[in-house]
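Moderator note: this is an archived Q&A kept for reference. The question asked for a predicted structure of one protein chain; the sequence and the answer are reproduced below.
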Amino acid sequence: MNSEPDFFSNLRAEIADGRIWLDRLVVLAAAVSAGLFVVGFTLLTNHAFEAFGLLQRLGAWWPFVWTPAATAGLAWLTLRYTPGAAGSGIPQVMAALEPAVSPQQLSLFVSLKLSIAKIVLSVGGIAAGLSIGREGPSVQVAAGVMLQARRWLSPRSGINTHGLLVAGGAAGIAAAFNTPLAGVVFAIEELSRRMEQRSSGLIISAIVTAGLMAVSVFGNLTYFGVVHVPHLDAGMLLPGVLVTIVAGLLGGLFARLLQATMSGLPDRFSRLRRERPIRFAAACGLAVALIGWVSHGATYGSGYETTRGLLEGQGGVGSLYVVLKFVSTWISAASGVPGGIFAPSLSIGAGVGFDIAHWLRPDAAAPLIAIGMAAYLAAVTQAPLTSFIIVMEMVDGHQMVLSLMAAAMLARLVSRLISHPLYPALAQLQLARLPPVEVAADEPPQDAPSADAARPPDDIDALDVKRM
């Protein structure tokens, strides 16, 4: 029979082994640094969008000059110096977690250099007025900072590269949205797919520490304020289901469209993106400026201000806002400039909820907007648990837990009928950047990786991955 733990003996062992405490301090220091990086990233993006607002006030024609030029310059910098910083950053972290990636190849996807480049280039994209967010990039930023701890950890610490990457990615989500529970769920649902006992403490510690850095600067405030939920009756069923289905269809369409764009198709659009990426980026910037002019500036940036205004009942959007923001976000992602889609997705979902509430239940606009946010994000990412918890924590919507959960699950089901999961598909494209495996001449043929194994699933073409 197993003996009961000896409290005093275990306490002496804990105190006596100074190396254990040093390893713990290293992890906490890395988590603090990751949180501070995300906080700095947040402040820089806020100032960048304010600067773009000043540019708009100088004249309506300025974005037609500045946005294409800045987009082309940022795309050139990304392709020339840090191709691993392109895109949202979540696929890179997922790719780095694959067993096929050796320790020497990790820097292709996650590193301190890429974290710094991600911040600079994403801030530049916000300053250019592109429809991008900072939340997805925060995952790669925090993971790259957290990964630096491995060089100071002892071999018997029990903390490996996988654990540091998952903890860093989760901390990035938690600090970016001020949603600690969403960070835990994101680590399980998107990154790790499972929670190892030896990694759980590391993940929680990183989330709490990085979150405290954000709270110390911005305060313990919800991202989008507080949703005031009226009495929910049976009359909410039809509008809620309609919001969910529309958001699910649009989110699935966006995920499929983005995968096709990034993988490259044999058409003129993809050929221009592949052969003339800088000119293509400039054209994308011009299109974003044109859409911004048509929408009177509503589609520029992440959409945070628009979403918060809708939730608080202090603003509205035009009838074409959802379509224009959808197209602007797709074009911004296709341009090759680093940036995320989380915040724009929440804004599109909020627009769906607002439009349907306007026609069916004006008195219940806030809960329908929250349902639209959770549904659209779940449809794009096909991560329903993360999606509904992010929205629940951001709007302090604990009264709507069941509604948000049901909307996220149904929207994900609708999205699966249209598209494959977005981030795993993009992660496979990232893995195509790995150098080909050299097989010795005397090695049996069956040991070499097959063409099907090296190819991303579901016939996703990876020819254009170097330009992602």
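Archived answer notes: Confidence is low (pLDDT under 50) at residues 445-468.
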